[in-house]
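Please predict the structure of the following assembly.
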Amino acid sequence: MERTNKKPEKEAGQPCRPEEIEYLHALNRLTPAGRKRLLTWLHVRTYAADEPLFRQGEPALCLFFLLSGSLALEADSRTGRPDRLKIVAPGQACGSAALAGDAFYGESCLALEPSRVAVLPQTAFHQLLAGQPAIAAALLQGLLEETLDDWRQALRTYSGLTDHLTRANIIV
Amino acid sequence: MKTTMPIPTAPAREESGRVLALALIAAGILLPLLICALAAPPLFRLLLFTLWLNGLASTLPPQPGRRLRLGALLALLLLALHLLFAPLLPGLIASAPPGSAALISRHLAAGRSELLRFARELTALLWPSTATLALALLLAGLLTALRPPLHRELLRLAPNRALTRRAWLLRELPDRFGRWIRDESLRSLLMGGLWALGTWLLGYSHPAAAGLFMALAAPTPFWGPLFAAGLSLFFALDPGHLPLQAGGAAIVFAVTWLAAHLLLTPRLALSRPPLSRGWTLLWALAGYLCAGVGGFFIAAPLIAAARHADGALHLPTPRSCEPTSPQSVQFS
């Protein structure tokens, strides 16, 4: 994986195009009209390798959809070395704590390579919830499906590891 | 390879930057307002009412239809009330009673005439014409309608490293100030109205001015209503009636205070930033020393506004920011 410390070409966000959000898993349940409505609130940002998108403990105010590149979710641990929780692949979302109200990010997120993300601010979700609840519900359902997939994957990994250690008589 | 991701702390540079930003915001808002108040009172009135109405508008319900209906209804109500009271209220507040000059000069002359002069100047400075109020309503409505696209654009233009801070600022500033302006306006309306009614029933010479002082003092926690009640004694009819009217005023004050606390405080407690009574009194007295009665009235609201601006500039941290094990961390 190539890592460079070059600054991103453009610091500010760029308008988002419809074809860019076509393959986002969390937006699967949205109708084309709903996507179009959501598009007005989205903007695209470019992050350099190692650049953080958000840090653990910051107020969760933006939801990110990865368009290209890769991101890592890491949690601080007592040992001082961050625990890497997940690698986010293109099409996936991160920072969904932003939709939970007054929440804080439970982990840090940083770009592993130059990455492009679409950003949805929390305010947009609140506006949708008030004005077009069907779109907000579809977005929440899509995110819930994605979170459930993550959870199943984590459980599968964890139970496989437990099984392996039990068979090896390391834990009884 | 970057291996550590420390929990963010507030370094000294960030703190000093926050203080500088706060000072710049204060200077950027207060100085133009002060210059306008001195040089162009109509523009000052327009700016003040636009800010006030814009703050109130930000607390309207988020549903577009309900927001529009309620906003239009309140705007019409405000215009109607203004048209109703415009020929009556400023005169009622500021005029000296005809024929009582001798009495004033003999008994409560200094205090009463000073207060009436202040009330007259304040009314002349703040009371808007119907056209100014209509224009302020129009501007506030326009700002409310433009807020979502403006918000989007400001957020889009933020650099990557400032995205969370900008999103926090754009969410918190209108939210905090809107709730604060709405709640203090309600408090002022209730306390000022009850106090004017009570002093009118007690036969005070200028109940409207007494109500105005109570309304202006209501945003100063604890000390403001006490100060306004003390000032109102200057409007007692004459020294002979003073003990009776002061006793009555104590009862009216208790009723006003209780009404504000029982009806409003439980609902509105969160919008007022925490200020200790000692500091509030010191600030208010400092304001009084600098700018007289008007200084007393605006000192505490200025501090409250600064506290709100500071809260909006400062990113909060969770109560417990202990490093967590991967099992207890929620995916985001």
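Residues 1-9, 320-332 of chain B have pLDDT under 50 and may be disordered. Chain B touches chain A at residues 1-8, 61-64, 148, 151-152, 155-160, 163-164, 167-168, 170-171, 315-318, 321, 323-326, 329-332 (CB under 8 Å).
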